[in-house]
Amino acid sequence: MTVVLKLGGSVVTEKDATDTVDGPALADAADAIAASGADDLVLVHGGGSFGHPHAAAHDVSRTDGTREATAVREIHGAMRELNDVVCDALCERGVPAVPHHPHSAGHRNADGTLSLPTDTVATKRDEGFVPVLHGDVVTHADAGATILSGDELVVALAAGLDAERVGVCSTVDGVLDDAGTVIPDIENYADVERYLGGSDDTDVTGGMAAKVRALLGLRAPASVFGPDALGDFLDGGTPGTLVR
Amino acid sequence: MTVVLKLGGSVVTEKDATDTVDGPALADAADAIAASGADDLVLVHGGGSFGHPHAAAHDVSRTDGTREATAVREIHGAMRELNDVVCDALCERGVPAVPHHPHSAGHRNADGTLSLPTDTVATKRDEGFVPVLHGDVVTHADAGATILSGDELVVALAAGLDAERVGVCSTVDGVLDDAGTVIPDIENYADVERYLGGSDDTDVTGGMAAKVRALLGLRAPASVFGPDALGDFLDGGTPGTLVR
User: Fold this and answer.
1) CATH at residue B211
2) How many structural domains compose chain A?
3) Which of A36, A99, A161, B231 is 20 to 30 Å apart from B188, CA to CA?
4) Which residues are tagged with the site Transition state stabilizer (chains A, B) (predicted)?
């Protein structure tokens, strides 16, 4: 039973700094993943303070590209560095994490659609590894190279791997209404549109609105929850908001 | 006109050390590539002292795999480190080099055949980047993860990108006969089999014999030559041995 789990960039990094890991939060997340003993897990993490500042410095977004190899290498290099730290934390706890770098695995077509074959990810999973993907800069036909968000990866992986469950672990406890209460279920975007603003931080990849819209398009049920509920989700629970 | 060029691991590293770049040799190669102004170039480099010792330490070869995530990460990490140095040398000279890591781009099927989609590489090329691939450790169905050699990548890229020319830059001036003279043309393996021994160094990926066999299978003509002839090859010449 394949589970696609995203750790938000704001969970594993100090999002108001640059290139700074949130060590205790990452340790807690890695502990929860190791404790769950989850099989067939595919992980994604966001960019947080490693991805967004570098992308912003070079004016690169999901639609505005760069043709500067040095800009591509700087953004990608920062994300690889974060990915190494995440894989280290997992491997130290016995989780057989291996990197899977989207820059080398896929690209965008001229219309912006993502081409990311998932058979190599599936082979990693089937061989007992836990592939760890991340937001990245990817080549974009007719635009140079643009940003690929962790949320887009979650959608592509859930569809391509026919995942049974999807988890999005963010810094908030779920999708909140205007009273700050977690909305337990979302089945239509229109029902919750009025609650979903943009992200407060430097985020070239869209906030909760884009997340919810993307998750609604999946066949698999998706849970949006906070870091404290990670263990519950991995044990089969549906903490936070269930999007389906 | 796509040119696939491999820089041998023994060209860019000190092959009898561990994790040691041959700085002057790499600088010369990068100078030659920058001076050529070659368009539509796709580069591959071997593992040399970054790949082979780590693979040997974990008993990983093209056929013997590992299921240890830490072994995979060690071998892959060393190759990424070398790849970064190669890309640095190229970018410093104005060549728009970007990494393309085979561990994330492909895998082996259970019968050992390589699955490496080349459309992402082609998009990089078409957007004006110079993708730089490298020997790596890749997931292998039913075997964990095994070594993918630079020579195998050359073959997969030449076929997948419909390359017009292939160059293999090694530390020797071509394929040598038993008198140490460069054989100018090879059209049949049987004609030269008696001259082709194994590689002297720690090399899990096969020596000249495997190289020649693989190049004979290509549609594109392939030149095998030494570092001093790199500029000549990039200018359209056919130094060393022409395999076709």
Assistant:
1) 3.40.1160.10
2) 1
3) B231
4) 15
